[in-house]
Design goal:
This protein is of the alpha+beta class. It is 19% helix and 29% strand. Strands 6, 7, 8, 9, 11, 12, 14, 15, 19 and 20 form a 10-stranded antiparallel beta sheet that branches. α6 runs parallel beside α7 and α9 runs parallel beside α10. The chain binds (2R,3S,4R,5S)-2-(hydroxymethyl)piperidine-3,4,5-triol.
C-alpha cells in the first residue's frame, strides 16, 4: 500500500515499511526502511533526522532553513554532485555548465499495478506504483523515480528515468537505479563471487568505514560478482535478525556500492556500471535505468531470500512456465560432447524415456561444421553428416518415445571459421585497427546493430517453427572484449548490446510462448533477474561435481528460487574436479532445483540405473516441493562443517530436509535431524529416502562377510557390485513438529570402522540423505 500525506510517502508491504519525506529545502529523503510500522504520514517528526548544527568543514545547503542541513549528512533518495554531498553520487552528468546538479521534489503520482519501461525487463503484477518527479530547474533536467510495491513478496523495485528538457546534449557518466541511505546496524556485506565452474561462492565481511564495490565489467552480469547481495545486521542469523537483500534486473555490466561514512551512515547503490559508460542524451530524449530491487527481513537471511524467491517466481518469470512444474531432462553434452550420431542420440533418448525422463536436450554440435569448438558458430543449419534425417525427424522420434525435444543455441557468437563470418565480418565486435582477441575461439556479435538482432531472430524463428522444439538452451560462452562501435558513441556499446539482447529475447519468447527457455553462459556467467524476465530457468554451473555444487547451489539459492536453477546428475569422477561422489549424493544435491541428467546412461550399471529410476520417481512425487517449496538453508558447509537444506510446503504440511557431509570423520558425532518452521503441535511422519549401499564402499571389508576371499578391486567384486547391493537404513519416526524444529531426533550413528547393520548409516566421504516429512493423524484421532 502506498500512502501520501504532507509530502510524506509511506510504502507498506506485508512485513516492511519504507518512508520518504520531502525536506524543507525540497530534497527527497529516506526516513525509514525496515519492519512494518504503523502509518507515519500524520506525524512527520519521529522519523525525521534532526540537524541543529553543521559539522566543521561541512557545506551547509541553505542556512535559511535548518542551520545544520548539509547534504553530506542527510539520507537522500538520489544524490548528485556539487552541493556538499561528498559520498558516492547516484548521478554524474556533464552538462554545458559542468557537473553541478540539484534535483528538487516537484510532484508525484500513484498508479495501480505496474508501469512498463521501454526496452528493459520490467517486473509484472505490482500492487501499486509511486512515481516521483524531481527537477533541476537550472539544468532543465527531470528525474522520474519509480517505486513498484510488491506487497506479498515484500519487495520494492525502483528505476529512474532522466529527461533532457534543455536545448543542449547531456553526457551521462553515471546513473544509478537505486540509492538507499540508512543508519548502520553493524552490517556485514555478503557477496556471491566466483568464476567458471565455481560460481556463487558466498563471501562475508563486516563493513568498516570506506567504500565497497561489487561489479561486472565483462559485458555479462558475470560469474565473478553476481549483482545479488545481502546486508546483514550484526545479530542476523539464518532465521533471526535484520537482513536487507538487493538485486538488479539487468544482464550486462552492473555496479553495487556500499559506503560507510564516519557518521555511521550507510549508502547503498545499484545500477549500470559507469565503466566504459558514457551516454549522450540529446534534447528531449529520455534515458531509463534498469530496475533495482530491495527487500527487508526481520527474520534472518532465509526470509530475505524467500522474499526474493517469491518476487522472482511471481513477478519476474513470465508466461506459461511461470510457477509451472519443470520437466526432468537429459542433456547429451557431458554424455557425448561433440561426438554423437543420430543413432547414439536415439539410443540415449530411448533409455532416458524408459526410466521416466521427460525431455531430451540436444546440446552443442548439431549445426554447420561444428565438430569441435573452433568452428561453426553462426551457421544455424543442421549438419547432415550428424543428423542425416534433420531436426524434425529427430524431434518426432523423441516425441514418439513420450519425451519433449529441446535444442541448444549460442546465438550471440560467431566463429572465424563460419559462413556467417565470411559474409558479415563487420558484425563481430572488434576494433578497426587492432587484432581481435578470441575466447573459446569465438567472437561476439554486435547485438547493438539492428540487422544483427534481426538475423538472430530470423534463424531462431526458422528453426523453432520447423520442428517440434519445446525447450531452448540459450548459451553464451565468452566475455566481451575489443569493444568498439561504428554506430554509436563508444561509451554506449555495452548497454546497447544488452538492450539488443533484450529485444531479441522479447520477440522470440513472445512468438514461442509454449517453449521452455533455459539461459546459460558457460554455466552461471549470466545468472540474473534480467535473463529470468525472459528465460524460465538458468544453468547454474558447468560444474556438476556434487560437492562443489553444494557451495554453488547454496549461494545461488540465497538470491534465486529453486525453480530457476538447472541442476544435473553427471558421471563420477566428475569431469570438472575428477572427484568421485555417490550416485545418490549427486541426486540429493541436484534434486533441490530443476533436475536433469547429463551423462551416458548406458555406462551406468544395473544397480545405478535402478538408483536413478528411484530418484526420478521420488522427484516426480515431490516435484512441487523441490521446485517451489519455501527454501531454508539450515546449515552451511563452510561454517558448520556440513550442509543442510530444507523445503517446506506453503501450508507446512510436508517438506524435505537434505543432509550433506564432506569428508567422513573417524569418531563421528551423533547427527541430529533438525528442521525449521514445521507446525509444533502437528504430528509428522519423517522418513529417510531409501538408498541402497554399493558393496564396493566396503573395500577389503567385504571379506568379513564373504565365504571366499575376494579381491576388492578385482573383476568378480566389480561384477557383483553392478548387480547386488546391501540394504541401507530405513529410518523413520512419527514425531510432533516441535521435535523436528528443536532438533530432538537423534539419527542412527554413522559407520565408524566397525559394526555395520540396518541401524547404522553408511555415508562415507560425500555421503548424503534426504528426509521426507508429512503430517499424519494422531492415533486417537483416527
Ligand atoms: C557451455 C555450457 O555451459 C555447457 O552446458 C554446454 O552447453 C557447452 N557450453 C557447449 O558448448
Amino acid at each position: 500500500m502506498i500512502i501520501e500525506k504532507n509530502n510524506i510517502f509511506q510504502l507498506d508491504t506485508d512485513d516492511t515499511t519504507y518512508i520518504m519525506r520531502v525536506s524543507t529545502a525540497g530534497h527527497l529523503l529516506n526516513e525509514y526502511y525496515g519492519k512494518r510500522i504503523r502509518s507515519a504520514v500524520d506525524n512527520n517528526e519521529f522519523s525525521k533526522e534532526k540537524w541543529p548544527y553543521a559539522h566543521g568543514c561541512s557545506v551547509v545547503y541553505d542556512d535559511k532553513g535548518e542551520s545544520g542541513y548539509c547534504l553530506d549528512l542527510v539520507s537522500l533518495e538520489y544524490s548528485s554532485i556539487g552541493k556538499g554531498d561528498y559520498r558516492e553520487p547516484s548521478i554524474e552528468l556533464k552538462t554545458e555548465n559542468g557537473y553541478v546538479l540539484d534535483f528538487k521534489y516537484s510532484s508525484f503520482q500513484i498508479n495501480k499495478g505496474c508501469i512498463e519501461v521501454n526496452g528493459l525487463p520490467t517486473p509484472h503484477d505490482a500492487d501499486e506504483t509511486l512515481i516521483i518527479y524531481l527537477v533541476d530547474e537550472v539544468a532543465k533536467l527531470t528525474l522520474v523515480l519509480t517505486y513498484m510495491v510488491f506487497e506479498k513478496a515484500n519487495v520494492i523495485a525502483r528505476s529512474v528515468k532522466l529527461i533532457n528538457n534543455s536545448t543542449a546534449n547531456v553526457e551521462i557518466n553515471k546513473i544509478m537505479s537505486l540509492q538507499l541511505d540508512m543508519l548502520n546496524q553493524d552490517f556485514s556485506l555478503v557477496n556471491f563471487n566466483g568464476a567458471w565452474i565455481g560460481e556463487m561462492h558466498q563471501s562475508e565481511k563486516a563493513i568498516g568505514q570506506g567504500i565497497y564495490i561489487n561489479d561486472s565489467k565483462t559485458g555479462c552480469s558475470s560469474n565473478r560478482h553476481n549483482p545479488f547481495f545481502l546486508l546483514k545486521a550484526k545479530e542476523c542469523t539464518a532465521n533471526f535478525g535484520n537482513c536487507f537483500a538487493f538485486n538488479l534486473i539487468y544482464s550486462g555490466n552492473h555496479l553495487e556500492e556500499v559506503e560507510l561514512t564516519t557518521f555511521d551512515k550507510v549508502r547503498v547503490q545499484l545500477g549500470l556500471n559507469s565503466y566504459c559508460f558514457n551516454w549522450i542524451l540529446k534534447p528531449n530524449e529520455e534515458f531509463d535505468t534498469p530496475f533495482a530491487v530491495a527487500t527487508f527481513s526481520a527474520n534472518g537471511f532465509n526470509k530475505a531470500s524467500q522474499n526474493m524467491h517469491d518476487f522472482t517466481n511471481n513477478h519476474v518469470v513470465r508466461g506459461k512456465w511461470a510457477n509451472a512444474p519443470r520437466p526432468i531432462l537429459i542433456n547429451n553434452w557431458e554424455a557425448t560432447y561433440f561426438k554423437f550420431t543420430e543413432g547414439k542420440l536415439n539410443s540415449l533418448a530411448k533409455l532416458a524415456a524408459d526410466i521416466g525422463i521427460e525431455l531430451f536436450v540436444l546440446d552443442d554440435g548439431w549445426f554447420g561444421t561444428r565438430t569441435d569448438d573452433t568452428k561453426g558458430l553462426g551457421d544455424w543449419y543442421v549438419n547432415p553428416k550428424k543428423l542425416p534425417h534433420g531436426l524434425e525427424h529427430l524431434a518426432d522420434k523423441i516425441n514418439k518415445l513420450g519425451m519433449k525435444f529441446g535444442l541448444w543455441f549460442e546465438p550471440e557468437m560467431v566463429n572465424e571459421k563460419s559462413d556467417l563470418y565470411i559474409k558479415h565480418p563487420e558484425w563481430a565486435i572488434k576494433c578497426p585497427d587492432r587484432k581481435e582477441s578470441f575466447g573459446r575461439n569465438q567472437m561476439v556479435l554486435n547485438l547493438s546493430i539492428e540487422a544483427v538482432q534481426d538475423y538472430i531472430i530470423g534463424f531462431l524463428d526458422e528453426t523453432l517453427s520447423a520442428a517440434n522444439i519445446e525447450y531452448v538452451k540459450w548459451d553464451m560462452n565468452r566475455n566481451i572484449s575489443d569493444i568498439y562501435s561504428h554506430e554509436y558513441s563508444q561509451g554506449e556499446l555495452f548497454h546497447r548490446y544488452t538492450l539488443g539482447l533484450y529485444r531479441i529475447l522479447s520477440v522470440i519468447t513472445k512468438k514461442y510462448p509454449n517453449v521452455l527457455f533455459e539461459s546459460c553462459a558457460s554455466g552461471g556467467n549470466r545468472f540474473d533477474l534480467g535473463m529470468m524476465s525472459y528465460m524460465h530457468q538458468t544453468w547454474c554451473s558447468d560444474d556438476t561435481d556434487a560437492f562443489e555444487r553444494i557451495q554453488i547451489q547454496s549461494g545461488t539459492a540465497s538470491g534465486y528460487p529453486l525453480s530457476t536453477m538447472g541442476c544435473h546428475v553427471s558421471a563420477s569422477p566428475s569431469h570438472q574436479l575428477l572427484r568421485r561422489t555417490p550416485i545418490d549424493t549427486r541426486f540429493n544435491v541436484a534434486a533441490f532445483g530443476c533436475l536433469g541428467y547429463e551423462l551416458d546412461l548406458h555406462k551406468l550399471s544395473p544397480v545405478e540405473l535402478r538408483a536413478v529410476k528411484a530418484q526420478i520417481d521420488f522427484y516426480k512425487a515431490h516435484r512441487q516441493l523441490l521446485q517451489y517449496g519455501t527454501f531454508y538453508q539450515l546449515k552451511n558447509m563452510n561454517t558448520d562443517g556440513y550442509a543442510s537444506w530444507m523445503v517446506l510446503s506453503a501450508d507446512r504440511s510436508e517438506g524435505i530436509i537434505g543432509y550433506y557431509q564432506g569428508l567422513a570423520k573417524a569418531n563421528p558425532k551423533i547427527d541430529i535431524l533438525k528442521g525449521y518452521n514445521l507446525i509444533d503441535e502437528k504430528l509428522y511422519n519423517i522418513e529417510v529416502r531409501y538408498q541402497e549401499v554399493n558393496i564396493k564402499t566396503f573395500g577389503g571389508l567385504i571379506n568379513m562377510i564373504s565365504p571366499i576371499n575376494l579381491n576388492e578391486d578385482g573383476f568378480l567384486v566389480d561384477q557383483i557390485s553392478k548387480r547386488k547391493t546391501m540394504d541401507g537404513e530405513k529410518e523413520t519416526y512419527d514425531v510432533y513438529g516441535d521435535a523436528i524444529n528443536n532438533g530432538a531426533i537423534k539419527l542412527f550413528p554413522q559407520f565408524a570402522g566397525t559394526g555395520f547393520d540396518k541401524n547404522v548409516r553408511l555415508l562415507a566421504d560425500f555421503g548424503s540423505r534426504l528426509y521426507y516429512f508429512h503430517t499424519i493423524e494422531k492415533k486417537d484421532e483416527k
